[in-house]
């Protein structure tokens, strides 16, 4: 699953990386994005001549038919295996797909009575693009991140991971037909470029933020059971 992630690039950098027009609302960097937070996404906008825009949405998709926003916190992820048939997610998969830029994401592994946090991020520092879908509830735009089965050693921290799209798949994801091929996971070679490293416990508190959250812990992490 993906329940916490980091996205710290500026609007200008994201606009350049994704060739998008910036229509965000002054979002700042976050090293600890949590459910219901406002997040940047790249989507295609009819009001901008079907060009890409960098927009701000609420993380946790709320279907148009929902009575209120409360269910959004439980709908931060959509399973790639069922997104095309789910009542809540299928309409967005068919017509409203987006890219969710990230630096990396966090997972936790229980070691005895303790939980060790891990940060998963490209070893070369490149941007990640999570496959996302978005919707509108009243006037509020919301989104979910698609997940798929973890592979390539990443299943050591969780059996699910974000569906990550390399740059050559961005255009098809945003504008292609809603077919099964869109949901292909990363290749083994692409997965090998993901670095998995232990970080300190501070990221577990959503009130904490800052670059220190992705730094190694002050005490040695328990890794023997993983590696």
UniProtKB/TrEMBL annotation:
Assigned keywords, A-Z: Covalent protein-DNA linkage, DNA damage, DNA-binding, Hydrolase, Lyase, Protease
One of the record's GO molecular function terms: peptidase activity
Which range is the signal sequence, renumbered to this chain?
Answer: none
| Documented EC number(s) | 3.4.-.-
Look up keyword Protease and say if it applies: yes
The protein's superkingdom reads Bacteria
One GO biological process term is: protein-DNA covalent cross-linking repair
Return the protein name: Abasic site processing protein
Species source reads Paractinoplanes ferrugineus
